[in-house]
Amino acid sequence: xxxxxxxxxxxxxxxxxxxxxxxxxxxxxxxxxxxxxxxxxxxxxxxxxxxxxxxxxxxxxxxxxxxxxxxxxxxxxxxxxxxxxxxxxxxxxxxxxxxxxxxxxxxxxxxxxxxxxxxxxxxxxxxxxxxxxxxxxxxxxxxxxxxxxxxxxxxxxxxxxxxxxxxxxxxxxxxxxxxxxxxxxxxxxxxxxxxxxxxxxxxxxxxxxxxxxxxxxxxxxxxxxxxxxxxxxxxxxxxxxxxxxxxxxxxxxxxxxxxxxxxxxxxxxxxxxxxxxxxxxxxxxxxxxxxxxxxxxxxxxxxxxxxxxxxxxxxxxxxxxxxxxxxxxxxxxxxxxxxx
Amino acid sequence: xxxxxxxxxxxxxxxxxxxxxxxxxxxxxxxxxxxxxxxxxxxxxxxxxxxxxxxxxxxxxxxxxxxxxxxxxxxxxxxxxxxxxxxxxxxxxxxxxxxxxxxxxxxxxxxxxxxxxxxxxxxxxxxxxxxxxxxxxxxxxxxxxxxxxxxxxxxxxxxxxxxxxxxxxxxxxxxxxxxxxxxxxxxxxxxxxxxxxxxxxxxxxxxxxxxxxxxxxxxxxxxxxxxxxxxxxxxxxxxxxxxxxxxxxxxxxxxxxxxxxxxxxxxxxxxxxxxxxxxxxxxxxxxxxxxxxxxxxxxxxxxxxxxxxxxxxxxxxxxxxxxxxxxxxxxxxxxxxxxx
DNA sequence: AATAACTATGTAAGCGGTTTCAATAAACCT
DNA sequence: AGGTTTATTGAAACCGCTTACATAGTTATT
Lengths: 340, 340
What we know:
Structural class of chain A: alpha/beta
Number of strands of chain A: 12
Oligomer: homodimer
Number of helices of chain A: 13
């Protein structure tokens, strides 16, 4: 356990100065093996742990990274947080978590809070408020003036802001193309966010549809504004869409949760999956393997993304030059909700 | 944004001493309104934020709570973390997250790390290493010597350790009793952890079975040791159990994930749910409403638990006397996997 | 009007480390 | 052996803020 000794106590017991104790604490090379051992023995004997605040004051770092996400209870984000936390701690850092609940104001407040807590870096896990235009991201840029800011699945170009993204555009483009190739023409795009990655995904879908000459009107894109947990609501939403006479034989969802809503809708409407309604989800979350039929989904290699994010961040903190943006491609995992 | 001014800069610009600045910073009453305004103006003008380390050094607190959990990507734990983080921040605290990955050694290490980071309290979210016997929890008791330790869904009696638990025993007892009452006698208990709450749940099941004279041997309890995400593996596990000639017409699972495994097993084995196999899960997670048929599950009022946990912790930090243990009862949410 | 009792502010001593700089000891040359 | 260079160590300044104590300025009391 942690005792309440100070560096003075240790220096006294070890018969050296506090400077020397500090040196062995920080692994300075300029300490003789003999004294180093002597000091370490005392430290171990009394289970001394240096005071983090004092240390922070002197070093101006507490080896802590701020992690911000909209909702840590979202399956995908929760997973990201888990990977990030694990990898950070493996690197001797730990993480302060802030959940912003999809509110811009909270996001700004948290950002300032993290900065004032002197984190060494900030990771935005799927922030919902990254805009394409730089000037709209001022609050992030302000934070980046102080510490490196890492963006997971989002990207914009600003000093000291680094992005690790999955190629959502291309993944969606390919998924849509494949569904078209399987003979389906009326493909509804079902999404719930206009975030950075949301826009990219939508663009991928549109490109494929346009290319095939199938994008006739905005009818085939449906924004769902309810909670990401409200499967029933999603299903009802699709029922309404159907009620309006909009025809669709395929659903491509921006998220597995939404895809589940589509599955539920199919059940309610009595449609056979995938023969009468094909569905593709996104994120390849636990849900995809859980539902019935199992969901075809796009896997965007979350762990790889997180690993690179941490590697990049650690590099930056060590003063290395690091790539501003890294892109990984996704992969379509075929399961029971698609034909081909 | 946060500037790099010190209290000296502010005091100079405001024409007062640093003590006065510090007083307005900390809301001390002994400052005249005139000077207070003067100082605040300067602070706002320069967007000054006091250095957290220096402040921590002086106050010996950084308004931070350590949150430990085995796996933040687990649906249930993720949700708990979300609630906790939200409520903490609403109270002016924030949280350092540590995921221990179900490893005792990591759990101990994190506990020490949190203490050394001078957190004001520690919350164990469904720790897997709470033992019934006090002496086995020494490492937690050591931490409790320094700061209050809050246990969610676990409990043991030690100084400065507080518990908020759901009455798992009773919930399971009732669930089992109801299934028996619905005419099912061969009920398999499918579980994956021998944690504190795991034991309680199992005991509830046993009690109900014993009471009904149905507990003939240990055959009807099946410990699954695989990953909580490996639905396929769970299903196969149950296939093997069936293969051994162990008969079961009902499954009560210690967790919704396991229940999903049971659903998958039923599908594979060609059993109709709930007529040929009834299933009850635990936690009433998102999954329960997602799967097909929808899962009957026990809701243990997670948000209520978290709310009370935070309230209790805040009370403690304000020096109030607080209850050592609070118990809430759960509720069975009936859906499509049970008869009655 | 003189004394007591506050109120508002400043001075300076910590809080527990890190680090610069100077001093001492040990090692290396010629 | 004497002069250098280098490896160790310690003294003390400093990081930025809190707070006990002292002081000066006000208001209340008799």
